[in-house]
């Protein structure tokens, strides 16, 4: 038995199928990695399956010690499961950790889990909890703690608990609590999850930012007040809106030091410069920070010009200029189609995001998603658009496009509005401050929303376009679409999945659901001395990887 | 004099009362309260839930009653949370009704709690006032001597070339609002594009440690705009004094010009600028807001913008109390100082 | 189409001249300042009994300064004239811009020529032309007034639509040719493109229209409110004065920026408070006009009622059209009767600015009236049995016009700055608005690399406010000579 065969013997059959698909070019490498590691394969093994050597994890020697100052909005901290901003999670990531971690290359790294396996139809997952982990108050970390946290996540009665939706296969829809029998504790370090329906995304979902594991003594509210966690840092200073400081916890032996090395930094400072990137430019020019949280639009070039190192990651992050179909005149599909047709996505990308991304096709499935089916570019025909609008009786109607006052989002909406105006549509723009904007973001008739990347295409469809789900801002409700979505959620080979997805994409486009101009790449810039802090597709900060040269 | 001051203080209190009520009223209008409710318990709640949340948290009472509670002249509201624990304006977590105070308003020193910064309002205001205090100190240290010098030099020989040049300069600075000069300063002195990079275009690091490099631009930006106005007032006052009889007499007597300016004219010429400088304080607040936003210096002006932008009611009220107080106190000082410095004015 | 240079072929001749004259001027000014610090020139008697003043350094600097200034003006004039006359493109950006402004130059020249010729018959306005400062200020203000006028009325001067975005023109430098120009479009972005590929030059011109329209109008309204309340407060005194003064001080004690934040947020607008404030504030101009005319024609029975009726009807209709806005709580007029609607934020901004300015005007008006009330002609009118309003409006107000006009000019400048502040904080005006405050705020984000998008409107705003200040200074100087 060769090594290769031995490997194959314990590998999930679906992962082998994915490997074949990847080799024959039907599955992107990135998608393969996400899918295969989600089924319980360690990343090196996943790479082995497709015959690619594991990319060398930064082997460079990272120096110990030092302080890293990063620009980031410091928002009020919340119970992790109701956290609604990556920035909030990035603070408590210092001392709270996750079961698994989503990496830059699309693979999953086991963190507080040592490994996991799925059964053949992805309805049962066995989780092996990592041994030898302790909380920083001295308690040992066991399967009990994992069960406690999953129970917390499944509590759908808590307002704003977005984890409940992600754990839908474990939730009892009647009580909105953890379903009886959904979790079995086998021993101190093993548990089994019994899903009500196949869900390949459940492990990926535990890498999402609200899924940090808290200690059973945690009672809700600001987690920094009593920072019990398994991670290597503790908060020192939390001044919301001003700065947050994390320092290496001297009294805690972090389990990861043996596994990954690190943590290297003594101190991490998050300094708040508000939402205006211009303030960050000033901070960079003044030498007040070492690294940006995110560089957007035109500022990417500015930071490059300042001689900072650029770190780019291609993602499925996007902006959707969407119609709420519950509001007139957007309940008329011709109006929506007409407005869609009047906008050239290329130009929005150029003017709104400086061509730093890929043109999208108005259906919110990204070429880097495994299920992506190419159904051609979005239609652009301003003259036909005006005709359609006129025949729908809305040639004179005044449309209002609402956006947040964030630099690149407002700019993109301005570009959309300008094109509509050129096409002869009567349009006005309204820009709302962030505090006001988010209060009603689901119900504006015509507005723009920023969507972060989800590793799988079906994840985003489930979050935003399924009838009646919490974040369905378009009020889109199409039974055919819902049926197709359910079909796409179970495991099938790539061609079959793509076929279903092609149908869904066509439906989204034919119904004129969103103008989705582009997929944006994410960027971050830092001083040459900073190490290991590359941009992450979902904005995660893996503090233990960070280092700085003196 | 005493009667005058007492009267002024009484008016001042009345003004402060009216203004805080206006702020209270505007921040407590229906849509604003709805925003508060939504930001506290989530954006996807129904109107009925908003209503019940507002009722449970004491927002359903008439505005005047709540204003009284905020002031501390009416007892704070009490109620019960959904799970039966007692709640109330003055009831802290895990506190029973008996333990809690009956009154907890601004008169009792309770400024409330900021929803944006998650900290007591008094703490935030103290912190930001300290930062702005530093900024104002340096602004005054640059602006007042600079403006007086400009004004005196220009006013001592009215109509001379020096006067023309300085006056034009003063007019130009008053015509350059902070957002223009700040932008130009950053572009010229701090940006990589021009390449001088003498100073910092961000004053965030000055919150901990003020240096020449990180504080010059914000100070200059505010000082320059205010300087022109004070300088022109000083010039006018100086020019008037220089034509006064006693100066003419001194000149005819052959006193040296320098001595005339320094010994005789200056003292009288500075009465008017003094009031102007005092009245300049409320104006400076405007500049402080712009400059602190532009340079990301988290002082009082920045706090005001944050509080107003996020409808942080109690913080906004605290901020307005302080700013109204500053305005009124400087007006009072200006009035008293004017009377004190100018013996010709008598108060009946 | 090639990119334009700043001065084109014109520059080879004029640029060196320009630098030389600027250097000379700076030297001369420095010399003058130094000379002023030295002791005054001594008069020395000559043996024949006449006096001679040593000119020395001071005289030299004076003469040099005058000539340097003249030379500089001549060079600048040459840029404009040559630029406007030479074929398009050969005189560079300066030439092309000068040419676009041709209608403004012609109007300016006409106004100045006429005014200087007839200045002896024009009262205070005519005397303005005796003061260099005042003339420069008047020129600057008039420049922007004509620009705004021609842009609004005929669409002249601007080269592109201020809102349209052309692909490929994002952040381009001044003088860049328009890529893939549509048929008939102007071939260049004269002062570059902004972050959204809009023409900076056209936006500046369009912005002037907003500023030049709103600022004086808002100031005028503030004056009407302030004076309608200030004069009676001073004249009648007593309880009325106390209450009004208290209210004025109340508004004055309010930090302006806080007031704006409270008034202009979407939530407050939703409640309709700004609309109700508009209803109250805009009554005052009507009141002012009505009282003004009524007190005049009170004794003339035949004219009194017709005049009053016509005035009230016209202004009343205007008032109702202005106040009633669809989409706000105050919306009662049928669209057919509603003459005009002011776009969204502008009305709110307008109201806020009027509200903030009125108390200051009130204080000034009251102060002036207190002073004038002691004059003999007021006493004379009182003994004549004139009604109080007649005395206030037809006896006192005309005599207070000097200081009021000066303050009016200053206040327009202040209002312009205030509007810019609002734009800077993104309050009120629509986000795409080309007004200068908003464009400065948009442009400042990219200051490090593309300074033109912020600097152009900043200089425009600076020049207008400077012009107003200089004009006020000139007017004050001349009116003091009375």
From TrEMBL, chain A:
Domain of life according to the entry: Bacteria
Solute-binding protein family domain span: 108-454
GO cellular component term, pick one: outer membrane-bounded periplasmic space
InterPro entries: Peptide/Ni-bd, SBP_5, SBP_5_dom, TAT_signal
Location of the protein in the cell: Periplasm
Pfam family, one: SBP_bac_5
Keyword Membrane found: yes
Listed CDD domains: PBP2_NikA_DppA_OppA_like_17
PROSITE patterns registered for this protein in UniProt: TAT (PS51318)
GO BP terms in the entry: peptide transport
Entry keyword annotation includes Transmembrane helix: yes
Regions that span the bilayer: 32-50
GO MF term set: peptide transmembrane transporter activity
Signal peptide residue numbers: none
Keywords noted in UniProt: Membrane, Transmembrane, Transmembrane helix
Main location: periplasm
Protein family (similarity comment): Belongs to the bacterial solute-binding protein 5 family.
Name of protein: Wenxma_19, whole genome shotgun sequence
Species annotation: Wenxinia marina DSM 24838
From TrEMBL, chain B:
Gene3D superfamilies: MetI-like
GO BP, sorted A to Z: transmembrane transport
Compartment(s) where it occurs, according to its Swiss-Prot or TrEMBL record: Cell membrane
Residue spans crossing the bilayer: 9-29, 135-156, 177-199, 211-231, 270-295, 315-341
Domain ABC transmembrane type-1, first and last residues per copy: 129-334
Taxonomy, superkingdom: Bacteria
Main location: membrane
Pfam families recorded: BPD_transp_1 (PF00528)
InterPro entries for this protein: MetI-like (IPR000515), MetI-like_sf (IPR035906)
One Gene Ontology cellular component: plasma membrane
UniProt keyword terms in alphabetical order: Cell membrane, Membrane, Transmembrane, Transmembrane helix, Transport
Topology of the protein relative to the lipid bilayer: Multi-pass membrane protein
Family stated for the protein in its record: Belongs to the binding-protein-dependent transport system permease family.
Protein name per UniProt: ABC-type dipeptide/oligopeptide/nickel transport system, permease component
Naturally occurring in which organism (per UniProt): Wenxinia marina DSM 24838
Lineage, opening ranks: Bacteria, Pseudomonadati, Pseudomonadota, Alphaproteobacteria, Rhodobacterales
Automatic annotation (TrEMBL), chain C:
Membrane topology: Multi-pass membrane protein
Highest taxon, organism lineage: Bacteria
Record's subcellular location: Cell membrane
CDD domains recorded: TM_PBP2
GO biological process, one term: transmembrane transport
Domain ABC transmembrane type-1 per the UniProt entry, residue ranges: 208-472
Keywords annotated in UniProt: Cell membrane, Membrane, Transmembrane, Transmembrane helix, Transport
Listed GO CC annotations: plasma membrane
TM helices/strands, residue ranges: 17-38, 67-89, 101-118, 138-159, 205-231, 243-264, 276-293, 305-322, 342-362, 408-429, 449-472
InterPro entries hit by this protein: BP-dependent_transpt_permease, MetI-like, MetI-like_sf
Family, per entry: Belongs to the binding-protein-dependent transport system permease family.
Name of the protein in its database record: ABC-type dipeptide/oligopeptide/nickel transport system, permease component
Species for this entry: Wenxinia marina DSM 24838
Lineage per the UniProt record: Bacteria, Pseudomonadati, Pseudomonadota, Alphaproteobacteria, Rhodobacterales
